[in-house]
Amino acid sequence: MGVRTFAEDLLGAVLDTLSPLTAAATDEGALRLLLFDLGWVPPAGPLDADSLGPIRAVAEQLAEAAEALAEFLADGGDWAALVEQVGDVVAAVKGLSATDGTGLPAPLNQSGLWASLATELPGYLLTDQLRREKPALFALLLLTGVISRGPAQPSPYRIPGTQATEVHWDRLVLLVGDPQELAQRAYGWGGELNAYKLLRAVQDVAEAFGLPAVRAVPELALYEQYFGPPSSPMPIPPPLVLRMPLAAVEAADGDATAYAEAGLILLPVPPEPGAAPNGLLLGPYAAGAGQTVFEPSETVRVELSAEVDASGALGVLLRPGSLAPHADETAVSGEFTVAVEHRPARPLTVLGDPAAAGVTLGGSRAWLSVETEGVEVREVAVGLEVRALRVVLDPAALDGLISSVTGGRIVEVETDIELVWSSRTGLTLRGSGRLERTFPLHLELGPVRVGDLTVRGAADGDGLRLSAAVDLTAALGPVRATVQQVGIALALHHAPDGGLLFGLDAGFDLVPPLGAGLAVSAGPVNGGGHLYLDHDKGRYAGVFQLGLGGVAALSSWRLQGVAILDTKAVGAGPAADPDDEGFFSLLVVASYEWSPGIALGWGIFLNGVGVVVGHNRRTDVEELRGATRTGALDALLFPADPVGDAPAVIGTLGRLLPPAPGSTVLGVMARGEMLGSLITAKLAVLIQLPTPVRVVVLGQLIVDLKQIGRLRLDVVGVLDFDRGEFSLDGSLIDSKLLGRTITGDMALRARWQGDASFALSLGGFHPAFPPPTGFPALRRLTIALSDNGSSRISAYLAITSNSVQFGGSIDLRITFWKIDIEGHAHLDALMRFDPLWFTAELGARVTVKVFGKTLLGVDLLVGVSGPQPWGFWGHVKLKLLFLEVDKSFDTRKRGAAAPPELPFVRAVDRLRETLGLPSAWEATAGGNGDLAVLRSPELPGRLVLRPDTVLGIRQNVLPFGVEIERLGAARVSGPNHFRVHSFGYGDGHAGTVGDPILDRFAPGQFRDLGVDELLDQPGYRWQETGRRLGLPGGTDLPAVGLTVSAALDGDGAYDAWVVDHPDAPGRPLPGPAAAAPVTGFAGNGPAANAKTRDSGPARFGGAGLGLTTTGSGGR
Fold first, then answer.
1. pLDDT: is 82 or 34 the higher one?
2. How far apart are the first and last CA of the chain?
3. What is the pTM of this model?
4. With 413 labelled, which of 536, 638, 691, 692 sits at a CA distance of 20 to 30 A?
5. How many CB atoms lie within 10 A of CB 171?
């Protein structure tokens, strides 16, 4: 059974297709009928044996092939030889073109007849079989152009109007890979569109499925919309529209005005009136229809739902290179849906034997939906649903080992599949983003467990490939084996030289597994390995584990490792480095654990170490942060069973540390325990180089309190030097205390570049506080008091650069009989440090319900904020049966007492005092890197700048360029807006104000902030604190961040002179002592000739690093 059953169906279908040749070789009447069906006038007189000779030779080969098939089915045999024999029959049909008809009666004496038989007979035999037994499949192949009909080659003996049929198997792959090219070959799409042929093919498909379809001239409104005013006479051939009425409703009393009809139209449309059609309009039409069900036969059901009344007003307009929803001014908002459902009386056999190995179909449903809003089409969707698709696989056909471990049991799965095309989302398989579907089986077949079944369909070169594969796990004593994604595939390929069925080759082959694993657990010895091979994705991976358990006083240890080699970039072909050379990406994670551990003191024992090496790899920060919530860090931090969980471990590591050209990741890991096994900690430190430079710390802390509970915290810390940021994320996973689940998240963000900020949160923020930009959403720290989560305790704590926040809530629910008691209490508090301000709110609510009706309800709330200004608010609500009392108060609305008066200070005096200090002035060294300023002995207390020095002024009293309302806890009097307008030097010389110098200021120190601003404003902002000062003549100096000190030499260097007196001549500044004499003495002195230079450790000295000095280190 199994694959053999498929072979029976396939070869049997081929021989049945050729059966008309057998009849024609033995029966003169059958030969005449065959010639007539092919469009040839039969011979006038009787036929002798010589006339049947060429066809009889083919028939004899066919009989031998049929006999061989019968023997194969009965006793087995050589499958390849049987396939070759059937292929020889097909080749013999093509060989009829070489027949010499000399001496035979006409038209058998015509060479054109035998040549046409070789080309037209395969199409006739195949289509005749399909037309009789599978009319729907025949119509679909005709529509897609796989089967085509066209004028036959002319001949005096040809019946006028004969249509020849050809089979184009090579177009099967175009159906999946390039539908537009298929349409061009079949109907002239993109050029001269054969609209008549296309409408006829669609009509044949509709009629094959039992649906009415009529070709007619469009009604006047539709005609004028696309073809312009009708002319007389009408063009030849006239434009036609294919109308498929799917539902018709008539009043019971026969009133014709109550008639309603709805369906679909297909209209070839021109780019402009008067031109030839080059596109298609597919859309619904409805006249008075609302919602109805139409059953044209016992097995076909049509569902129609319409909220529009128009014909051709909406739909899909398809033109070469474009596909767009269409609606004109007559369309109205609404939705049109039509569905055709096929419900056979019993499942249809698609392939094989349903009782052993095959595929059956319980029904199907096709639908079209158009959703409009005014003249806009929001979405057009087309779907094809396959219902009750049942796949039966016989493991005996796959492999002897697999068959033995499954005990000969057959694997069965039944599911529904829906293929959907949407103008929004494109072509998808419902539940998957591609033509692939995975079905969870989870079947237990003795020692074998069947995991997932994956069905795939894809273009394969010049053909199609359909595959079905499963995951298998088998346990045989101490050995456990896993096979990942193994199965069978059906491959269909175009064969120009004949193939199995007139140009089509079909074959079955084994889908090799993506991975295979083996694990052994025999007493103290355990180990195993897993190999993963994915050629399409370019990923090759391996996992191993080897361990020895403790026996008596012996220690135990475990060595394990994972290696992943990627040869393709993510989502692309072979990855390339900047020089366009192919590269590979390698990741190795290895660890070693032992027991008992090494004592480190304080009850801490080290019992595990590991390494992480990634070449052309990077750390994916977002994936790592998300791993704290999913437990994915287990794949990296000493996994418990890397072999058994190999697919998950490999996939997780590939996401956490993905390929990245030019990047390297290095790391170390450690595992330790404290207080026995009460506390377990796992730590990994990863460094990513060269850019961005990033240090990642991964941690896992487990507190195992045995029967009391278990707490687990996973954390990820990232130190990003390029962004100037440190972050920390953590989550509680699989944590319980006294049988109650505990959940919650924490995060920290600290940034020192750009807008500096700091925020630490355990469980989130105050409800009125907007989280900082980029801060993740956090779950409250929660302990569930009930299994359904209706009773719980939650809390949070947050600290930012200028606030502290905390709060929590308690929810209780008690249910007995028809009585529900619900209670809630919460506290939320926030304190802002500078300026000092806080808010706190306390609330409680209790409700008693009987039979779902509120019997008693109490709701209390009280809040306070201040001190600038103080505010109080609250409300109380009491409900008892039909009595209700509701009272509220809020002093924030009416205003509160005026805040206390603050002392006044003159900001201009503070600023003048600060600018008078030497520290307010800064000088940046020039190009040669020497001292920026020189003290003049003739002018005590004054500084003289070198010519290349950059001068600046700055202060930290207040920000320039903004209005100042306060300085800390004091009000500002006098001038309150300051800026650097000008400056002078020397004896009244004017300089130029250059670029601003920025520093961080707290807005609340200089402005009165409202309540909302207190919550929204960041703790610090970059504002102007000073200015660069320009050279004489108005030359602007660059900002300090753009100033680069470069050593000058030659004519561009400054000459340094010492002038002792204004009237005395200058002398050159002495330079550093020459190093040549010292070097000469050092190379020949006693130290240079000492024995210690070439003995002992000095023998192993390496070459020098090539370092040189760039300047003196001091004076």
1. 34
2. 96
3. 0.55
4. 536
5. 20
